């Protein structure tokens, strides 16, 4: 299967991006193709309905990766009880054609204990784009974020957190497979 992960932070060492990279690692271990779009590394132009930004390399790569994907992971930090502005901007650039009947996993990292508001917001956006929300989501916060700092190896992720991430990713892959077989 082809999976696209969109890391929606504009911070170089964002824990949400590191979590997205770990999810990429896990999915690749299962033998699937994964494209990670890091919006910090490949920023997109500001969305405007008056300008399609045709030919913008990062935007074209992003759209192509979403179009080709059978499943999508959206990773965001939680800012003021919502998703990041760069991820919202990226989602504004696309239409229902990119998400229609595709499994989508929402992932968030918060400075506080949990990031429910951003995950709820992501799931609403996914529904409006006609994607299929994975029934589970991932939220890391507080001390859990230490497992996704820049200098932490995958083997050093807290075992309980690792078990949860693996379970949710497995559930997402099962849903993605089921939906791709039925389409």
From TrEMBL:
InterPro entries named among the record's database cross-references: Flavoprotein-like_sf, FMN_Rdtase-like_dom, NAD(P)H-dep_reductase
Signal peptide as annotated in the record: none
Gene Ontology molecular function, alphabetical: FMN binding; oxidoreductase activity
Gene Ontology cellular component list: cytosol
Matching SUPFAM superfamilies: Flavoproteins (SSF52218)
Domain NADPH-dependent FMN reductase-like: 1-142
Family to which the UniProt record says this protein belongs: Belongs to the azoreductase type 2 family.
Protein name, UniProt field: NADPH-dependent FMN reductase-like domain-containing protein
Organism (species): Paenibacillus ferrarius
């Amino acid at each position: 299967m082809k999976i696209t992960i969109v890391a929606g932070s504009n911070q170089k060492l964002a824990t949400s991006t590191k979590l997205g990279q770990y999810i990429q690692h896990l999915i690749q271990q299962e033998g699937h193709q994964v494209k990670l779009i890091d919006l910090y590394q490949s920023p997109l132009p500001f969305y405007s309905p008056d300008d399609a930004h045709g030919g913008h390399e990062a935007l074209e790569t992003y759209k192509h990766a979403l179009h080709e994907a059978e499943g999508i992971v959206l990773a965001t930090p939680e800012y003021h009880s919502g998703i990041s502005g760069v991820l919202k901007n990226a989602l504004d650039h696309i239409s229902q054609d990119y998400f229609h009947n595709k499994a989508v996993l929402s992932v968030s990292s918060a400075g506080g204990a949990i990031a429910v508001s951003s995950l709820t917001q992501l799931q609403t956006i996914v529904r409006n784009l006609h994607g299929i929300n994975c029934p589970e989501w991932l939220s890391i916060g507080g001390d859990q974020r230490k497992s996704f700092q820049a200098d932490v190896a995958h083997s050093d992720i807290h075992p309980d957190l690792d078990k949860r991430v693996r379970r949710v990713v497995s559930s997402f892959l099962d849903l993605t497979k089921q939906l791709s077989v039925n389409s």
